[in-house]
Design goal:
There is one protein chain. This protein has about 160 residues and is mainly beta. The protein has a single domain, classed as Sandwich (lipopolysaccharide transport protein A fold), CATH 2.60.450.10. Helices cover about 15% and strands about 55% of the residues. Strands 1, 2, 3, 4, 5, 6, 7, 8, 9, 10 and 11 form an eleven-stranded antiparallel β-sheet that branches. A hairpin with a 4-residue loop joins strand 3 and strand 4. The protein is globular, with a radius of gyration of 20 Å. The two termini are about 20 Å apart.
Length: about 160
C-alpha cells in the first residue's frame, strides 16, 4: 500500500472516529434505533416453558424454565415470565420476563435483565444491561423501549455504540 493510500485510509478512519466520538457525546444519554421485521398484533402468542403455575385470584400465570414466547416473526426467551391477564381473563395485558432475557426480531437481537411486553400497545421495554446487536454493530445501554408496530426504539442511560466496518 502506498503512503498516500495509507494516509487517505488513516484520514478517513480518523474522521469516522471523530464523528463517532462527537456523536457519542451527543448520544451518551439517549439514541434511537430501528428494529426487526415488523409486528403482527393479530398473530397468536405461543408460550413454551418447563413449568406453569396459574393463580386465578390475581389473574396471572407464571412460566418458568427455558421460557420461549413466539408471536409472528418475534421471539422472547427468558428464565421466568409472569403473564397478567386482562379483566376478562383471556386477553394478555402484559408479560414480565426476567432471567437472561433475549429478544429476537428478524436479524436483530437484544439482551437484558428484564423485559415488559404489552401486546395490546405493541410495546417492549427492556431494562438492565441492555445489549442490542444489529449485524456487526452493537449498542449497549440501561434501557431500550421499542414500538413493535413501527420498529422504532429508543435506548437511554449511558449509551455506548460499537460500529464494526
Amino acid at each position: 500500500m502506498t503512503c498516500s493510500i495509507m494516509l487517505r485510509t488513516l484520514s478517513r478512519s480518523f474522521a469516522l472516529m471523530l464523528g463517532l466520538a462527537t456523536a457519542g457525546a451527543a448520544f451518551a444519554q439517549e439514541t434511537s434505533v430501528s428494529l426487526g421485521a415488523g409486528f403482527d398484533r393479530e398473530a397468536p402468542v405461543e408460550i413454551t416453558a418447563d413449568s406453569l403455575s396459574l393463580d386465578r385470584d390475581s389473574g396471572t400465570a407464571q412460566f418458568a424454565g427455558g421460557v420461549m414466547i413466539v408471536q409472528g416473526g418475534m421471539e422472547l426467551k427468558a428464565g421466568k415470565v409472569t403473564v397478567t391477564y386482562a379483566d376478562e381473563g383471556s386477553d394478555i395485558e402484559s408479560m414480565v420476563a426476567t432471567g437472561g432475557v433475549t429478544f429476537i426480531s428478524g436479524e436483530d437481537l437484544a439482551e437484558s435483565q428484564q423485559a415488559i411486553y404489552k401486546p395490546d400497545s405493541g410495546t417492549l421495554q427492556m431494562r438492565g444491561d441492555v445489549i442490542l446487536t444489529q449485524g456487526n454493530n452493537a449498542i449497549a445501554s440501561e434501557t431500550l423501549d421499542i414500538d413493535l408496530e413501527t420498529g422504532n426504539g429508543v435506548l437511554t442511560g449511558r449509551v455506548r455504540v460499537v460500529v464494526k466496518q
